[in-house]
């Protein structure tokens, strides 16, 4: 007897949902949706209604999870910072004991990321531009993060034996910030394509 082919499950088929596993909890969906919307459209431009619609949850769910939009913004920025350090420390770990190579590896990766069509600059810097008020939590998180990056670059400059570690650290930070900003204006064919080379020249000129 010829077997009748089994119909493919519909998108709303409960058997399919069970096989796919449970959906992420509401807080995770909210966080993920906010991350995408805030980064690509701007924090101030995205309202709570857009976030809950994208996440497929209700406003009460958002406020139960985060308390306010500002709390959600802080969570987004801390997630962004965590991802930055994940990439940065991966470059460090790839070149143990060689701070020059560590910096250049991170900058090479940054050149690749800034060349992507979906890249919208540094989310932390963007937050500082959107929130000039010094007491706003979004700005406070972003400024604290940038200070940490500055200190880390100065530390690596010292490990390299720079004559003036603070000056080299600041120069590298300016290159980093400039790459993020210029890529939004001039794209992948702009100055960002020379980022790693510019960093190498700056480092070599700064060593004792």
From TrEMBL:
Biased composition (Basic and acidic residues): 9-18
Keywords of this entry: DNA-binding, Transcription, Transcription regulation
HTH tetR-type domain residues: 24-84
Top-level taxonomic group: Bacteria
InterPro entries: Homeodomain-like_sf, HTH_TetR, Tet_transcr_reg_TetR-rel_C_sf
Xref: SUPFAM superfamilies: Homeodomain-like (SSF46689), Tetracyclin repressor-like, C-terminal domain (SSF48498)
Region (Disordered): 1-24
Location of the DNA-binding region in this protein: 47-66
Name of protein: TetR/AcrR family transcriptional regulator
Natural source organism: Castellaniella denitrificans
